[in-house]
Amino acid sequence: MNFQEYSHKRYNILTGEWVLVSPHRSKRPWQGQEEEVVKEKRFKHDPNCYLCAGNTRANGEVNPNYDQVFIFNNDFAALQENVEDGCINNGLLRAETEKGICKVICFSPDHSKSLAEMTANEILYVVEAWKKEYQELGAKEFVNYVQIFENKGAVMGCSNPHPHGQIWSQSTLPNEVIKKDTSQKEYFQSNGRSLLLDYLDQETSLGERIVYENDEFLVFVPFWAIWPYETMIAPKNHLQSIDLLNSKQEFLFADAISKITSAYDRVFDCSFPYSAGIHQAPTSKEDNLHWHFHMSFYPPLLRSSSVKKFMVGYEMFGSPQRDITPELAVERLKRLI
Predict the structure, then answer these.
(1) Alpha carbon distance 54, 224 (integer Å)
(2) CA angle, 249 as apex, 328 and 331 as ends, to 5°?
(3) Fold entry, domain 14-22+42-336
(4) What is the pLDDT of residue 27?
(5) What CA–CA distance (Å, rounded) separates 326 from 315?
(6) CB atoms near residue 102 (< 10 Å)
(7) pLDDT: is 234 or 58 the higher one?
(8) Are the C-beta atoms of 117 and 79 separated by less than 8 Å?
(9) What residues contact residue 82 under an 8 Å CB cut-off, 6+ apart?
(10) Residue 271 in contact with residue 301, Cβ under 8 Å?
(11) Nearest-angstrom CA–CA distance, 162 and 199
């Protein structure tokens, strides 16, 4: 059967879930919603931006005149550190307190840039800051997981165009991390090897879904990708977290991020929106040798800069579904690296 022409489903080895692939649907006419594409020219410094150097934030604090990366505790954090322990366990009603620390990381003082417009050397400062925060937050007794992520673009709910991301640390593992923890642990216990490392070996031998690679990292479209131009960055060696990166690997991780984000901006000639995040070993005292860290990019744009993929209907009530196959997405992205 030609999997590039007919409906089929693919298995996600990291979550244990399936995605429906419907390549024939990409030919259907589109009369639905189109997102407004704004190509505004942004200045290097915006006096009204809460994240620019030297400006006053919403809570009255003044940002320092930073020249590289700036990190601060989120003024409107979703998690609180000073929470009394408590729970509800009343029949089918369950709740428990969750402690955490949320931080904002400004990637650059230049308000006009995104990661796509930063050099690998500039992104290296971001990678180094991520690593430091992972170490320091993870060392806290009540923190068992550190989630690093970025929402880029208004269509992804980003409230400020200044180049920035977030770091949330918390006392328990989030739902998506629990799925990946379970799958990787089961495979490692059965095979004595990293699940993702064996997958990368197979992808390398096939060469069908690799977008870019350097000496230490692969950028590829996962076989089970859900979003139209979803990609993943993973180290070629079995590294549980960014904490294990040496100086060479830090730079080559920054290089991989630079390559894929700049390619994204060329797909539809726009500042390509996405949610990106790093999944890596929990910071608990448990043995997490089964983990293999990776960074995923989930961009919503489907067929142009104004047409977005919506996760509704069947996706909400059944399972995720995509139209263009991962292999077709790879063909387009590889030409733009």
Answers:
(1) 44
(2) 10
(3) HIT family, subunit A (3.30.428)
(4) 53
(5) 18
(6) 19
(7) 234
(8) no
(9) none
(10) no
(11) 36
Residue 184 corresponds to which amino acid?
Answer: Q
- What is the model's pLDDT at position 312? 87
Are residues 276 and 298 in contact, defined by beta-carbon separation less than 8 angstroms?
Answer: yes
Report the C-alpha gap between 318 and 331 in whole angstroms.
Answer: 29
Report the distance separating Cα 117 and Cα 132, nearest Å.
23
57-91 pLDDT tens trace: 989 999 999 999 999 999 999 999 999 899 999 99
The CB-based long-range contact list for 1-6 (8 Å cut-off, 24+ gap) reads: 3/325, 4/325, 4/327, 4/328
Active site residues per annotation? 164
**Burial class, 123, CB count within 10 angstroms (exposed 0-12 / middle 13-18 / buried 19+):** buried
Characterize 217-240 residue by residue with b for buried, 16 or more Cβ atoms within 10 angstroms of its Cβ, and e for exposed. Answer: bbbbbbbbbbbbbbbbbbbbebbb
- The packing angle between helices 326-336 and 247-267, to 10°, is 100
pLDDT confidence of residue 35: 47
Cα distance between residue 208 and residue 4, in whole Å: 13
CA dist., res. 69 & res. 33, Å (int) = 37
- pLDDT (0 to 100) of residue 158: 83
Please state the domain extents for the chain: 14-22+42-336
Separation in Å, CA 232 to CA 51, 213, 216, 256, 294: 28, 11, 14, 10, 7
Cβ neighbour number for residue 75 with a 10 Å cutoff: 13
